[in-house]
């Protein structure tokens, strides 16, 4: 990163005042031969992350040695990448979004991806999933089922704009006609194929909605199928080598007598660990937003950690984990945060770094849908930590 001399900031002010607040930042900068990454905040480079880097999934030992894994609600593959890194052998993935399937096929053409356009990928189609999976796995299945039923009905972030008592509050959980029942569709598949281990991941709201009644019903059914259940636990990815605050609820069940023990929390890693190094402009998924000049004028006055309330975006502090990368709704992308040292929102690639995806993992579709994929994902490093502990306990 460049330093932020006072004259540079003063030049920005003059240039933006001349362009006007409604001009696009790209046009305002082009005449001066600059790009948006040449811009600085009024206060820049006063905090610098000097600690370590996040773990890379390539650094994990392949201790699972070929134990098969099947994933449901796969998304863009965050959980799958973590299990792959620990040596699990991919057997099949089920994903209903064609865009997400395209990402999976682009990055892992050797995987069996059940989803559009050749398969529905719909986990609620019990008969269709059983027909697709039966030729590939034994019963009981001596491997792992992993699944994260879509979490929007249980998410606080998805509904924080509305009063809980108001008509627009959507945190309806299991009463949601579609996504609310997908947990039980996953439970039905566990009961049918009886994997040695299953993992359910979701937002913490799944544990708390309806006072935990519905989740308890699901767990009791699984116990009735012969599973020992690890009590639902919420883990913050920032305590396991991910430079981002991200809480996920995990439920693990096993047919064996092994005992799952989660890794000890570690010192947190700042967002500057992955954002201090400038990403080449030619990198995949690194298109930056062409903000209006007026927006950048507001952003560049922010201090570390401050929020632009009009745009509802926060300037990240490089010394702390990033705030959670948000997926957004089904028709749009997530709301990214502001770069610690450049007054603009993060690119998809920068968000993927905060999620611990490798830089060579590419996301398909329009930019908004790329943000959705990254924001929906489990950080691969957190998934690898879980996979490693599952291996120790059960395989």
Detailed description of the structure:
The protein has helices at 6-19, 25-30, 78-85, 98-107, 126-133, 182-193, 205-208, 213-224, 272-275, 293-299, 348-354, 367-376, 380-394, and strands spanning 68-72, 89-94, 113-114, 144-147, 197-202, 228-236, 247-254, 307-308, 313-314. It folds into 2 domains: 6-51 and 270-277 and 286-357, no CATH class; 58-268 and 376-394, Rossmann fold (3-Layer(aba) Sandwich). It has 13 helices and 9 strands. It is 30% helix and 11% strand. The chain is of the alpha/beta class and 395 residues long.
How is the topology of this model organized?
Elements: H1 6-19, H2 25-30, E1 68-72, H3 78-85, E2 89-94, H4 98-107, E3 113-114, H5 126-133, E4 144-147, H6 182-193, E5 197-202, H7 205-208, H8 213-224, E6 228-236, E7 247-254, H9 272-275, H10 293-299, E8 307-308, E9 313-314, H11 348-354, H12 367-376, H13 380-394
Parallel strand pairs: 1-2, 1-4, 2-3, 4-5
Antiparallel strand pairs: 5-7, 6-7, 8-9
Helix pairs in contact: 3-13
Gyration radius, to the nearest Å? 22 Å
Number of domains: 2
CATH superfamily caption of the largest domain: Vaccinia Virus protein VP39
* Broad CATH class of the largest domain: Alpha Beta
Helix content: 25-40%
Q: What is the annotated CATH architecture of the largest domain?
A: 3-Layer(aba) Sandwich
Strand composition percent? 5-15%
Order of helical and strand elements: HHEHEHEHEHEHHEEHHEEHHH
Shape: elongated
Please, how many helices?
A: 13
- Based on secondary structure, the structural category is alpha/beta
SS elements, strand count = 9
Low-confidence stretches: 152-180
Q: CATH topology of the largest domain, anyone?
A: Rossmann fold
Instruction: Let me know the average pLDDT.
Output: 89
Spatial strand sequence of the major β-sheet? 3-2-1-4-5-7-6
Distance N to C terminus: 46 Å
Largest sheet data: 7 strands, mixed
């Amino acid at each position: 990163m460049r330093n932020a001399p006072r004259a540079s900031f003063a030049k920005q002010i003059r240039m933006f005042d001349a362009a006007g607040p409604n001009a696009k930042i790209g046009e305002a900068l082009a005449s001066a031969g600059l790009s948006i990454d040449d811009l600085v905040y009024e206060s820049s480079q006063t905090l610098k992350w000097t600690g370590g880097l996040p773990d890379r999934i390539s650094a994990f030992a392949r201790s699972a040695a070929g134990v098969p894994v099947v994933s449901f609600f796969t998304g863009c593959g965050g959980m799958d990448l973590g299990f792959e890194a620990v040596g699990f052998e991919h057997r099949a993935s089920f994903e209903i979004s064609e865009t997400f399937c395209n990402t999976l096929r682009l990055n892992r053409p050797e995987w069996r991806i059940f989803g559009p356009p050749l398969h529905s990928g719909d986990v609620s189609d019990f008969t269709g999933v059983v027909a697709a999976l039966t030729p590939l796995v034994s019963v009981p299945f001596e491997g792992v089922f992993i699944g994260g039923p879509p979490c929007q009905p249980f998410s606080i972030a998805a509904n924080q704009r509305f009063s809980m008592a108001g008509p627009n509050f959507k945190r309806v959980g299991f009463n949601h006609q579609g996504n609310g029942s997908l947990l039980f569709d996953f439970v039905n598949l566990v009961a049918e194929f009886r994997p040695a281990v299953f993992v359910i991941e979701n937002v913490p709201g799944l544990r708390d909605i309806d006072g935990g009644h519905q989740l308890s019903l699901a767990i009791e059914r699984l116990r009735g199928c012969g599973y020992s259940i690890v009590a639902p636990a919420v883990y913050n990815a920032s305590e396991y080598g991910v430079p981002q605050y991200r809480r996920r609820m995990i439920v693990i069940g096993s047919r064996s007598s092994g005992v799952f023990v989660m890794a000890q929390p570690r010192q947190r890693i700042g967002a500057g660990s992955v954002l201090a190094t400038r990403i080449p402009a030619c990198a995949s998924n690194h298109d930056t937003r062409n903000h209006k000049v007026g927006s950048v004028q507001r952003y560049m006055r922010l201090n570390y950690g401050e929020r632009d309330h009009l745009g509802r975006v926060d300037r990240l502090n490089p010394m702390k984990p990033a705030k959670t990368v948000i997926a957004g709704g089904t028709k749009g992308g997530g709301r990214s945060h502001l770069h610690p040292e450049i007054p603009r929102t993060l690119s998809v690639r920068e968000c993927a770094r905060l999620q611990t995806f490798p830089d060579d993992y590419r996301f398909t579709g329009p930019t908004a849908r790329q943000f959705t994929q990254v924001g929906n994902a489990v950080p691969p490093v957190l998934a690898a930590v879980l996979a490693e502990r599952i291996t120790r306990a059960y395989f």
